[in-house]
Write a structure and sequence with these properties.
Oligomer: single chain
Order of helices and strands: EEEEEEEEEEEEEEEEEEEEEEEEEE
Number of domains: 3
CATH architecture of the largest domain: Trefoil
Shape: elongated
Strand content: 25-35%
Number of strands: 26
């Protein structure tokens, strides 16, 4: 591994106007750091999946947390090597949660450079990433246009990730968030329940005409106790499934446009259009984009098809009890 620094230097950073911290970086041909800086604890902790497979995770090879360890694709296994702290929409580090090691693009980023971890250093350009609304992870604060990339689109275990020129629509550069791994991956059993809009407890989310087939619209309707109004889901990350049937609430794509109508479709594990989070505020939000199930125009008239729309806290049209 070449030295990170060629000569002695001092890096000074303002700490929110409350004082100044000086970090002395020594180099005598070895590039040794006197003291790494722990990353600020911002963002959410979870796994990162390529859009092609929710069963694969961004992984630190063999769980070795030291400078230079390869970052690769691997079967999701609930290990600490697959838990990352990341914040959408703000440039910053992507830390392996609780380790002090961050995703690092090296001191000379170029097409095809392999990903690794390195001690987290505050504001180090090689560790500044931006997770955007297209679910790309962009190397920020540099005169480059590089994104985290699934090398050759290869999902085989141990394939090292790379940086590559960012391109809209390149699925090798689309990364979806998942729940963090833990020692007990068994989820709580789903429960069957009707779902009511916050505006009216006498109205229910309903499969139109009780027609259980791909593409049937999901609408609002008077509650009637029928199987078309019974849904199984859990708090947190979940499918929203018609109880006792292999049909799920479906948003058409991982990042649908505002106003796309809700429907049911055959359930598929890991399909982004069927992967929801039932939040503490009772929103049903797609895991892959900030879109929520929405009571179209707030209209509780029977037959009004539900839609997806940008999530807004406190919007009664998006609260489902």
């Amino acid at each position: 591994m070449p030295p990170r620094l060629e000569q002695s230097s001092i890096m000074v950073q303002s700490l929110n106007g409350l004082g100044v911290a000086a970090i002395l970086l020594f180099s005598s041909g070895f590039g040794a750091l006197a003291s790494p800086v722990a990353p600020r604890q911002i963002g959410a902790v979870g796994t990162l999946h390529p859009i092609a497979s929710s069963g694969k995770c961004v992984d630190v090879r063999t769980s070795v947390f030291e400078n230079g360890t390869v970052v690769q694709i691997f079967d999701c296994n609930d290990s600490d090597a697959q838990n990352w702290r990341i914040q959408r929409g703000v440039a910053g580090p992507i830390e392996v949660e609780g380790t002090g090691f961050c995703l690092d693009a090296g001191s000379s980023p170029a097409l095809g450079v392999g990903m690794k971890i390195w001690q987290c250093i505050d504001n180090l350009p090689a560790q500044q990433w931006l997770y955007n609304n297209d679910n790309q992870i962009i190397l920020a604060n540099q005169d480059t246009n590089f994104c985290l990339d699934l090398t050759d689109g290869n999902l085989a275990n141990t394939n090292q990730l790379q940086i590559w020129e960012c391109a809209t629509g390149n699925e090798n550069q689309v990364w979806l968030e998942g729940p963090p791994g833990n020692d007990d991956p068994t989820p709580p059993p789903p429960t069957s329940r009707p779902l009511h809009p916050n505006a009216n407890g006498d109205k229910c989310m309903d499969v139109e005409g009780s027609v259980f087939a791909n593409g049937t619209p999901v609408q609002i309707f008077d509650c009637n106790g029928s199987s078309a109004q019974q849904w199984t889901l859990t708090d947190g990350n979940t499918k929203v499934q018609v109880a006792g049937m292999n049909f799920c609430l479906d948003a058409t794509s991982a990042n649908p446009a505002n106003g796309v109508g809700m429907k049911i479709w055959e359930c598929f594990d890991g399909l982004a259009a069927q992967s929801w989070t039932y939040t503490d505020s009772h929103h049903l939000q797609l895991q892959s984009s900030p879109k929520c199930v929405d009571l179209t125009n707030g209209d509780i008239t029977n037959g009004n098809q539900l839609q997806v729309f940008d999530c807004f806290e406190g919007n009664d049209n998006q609260i489902w009890n």
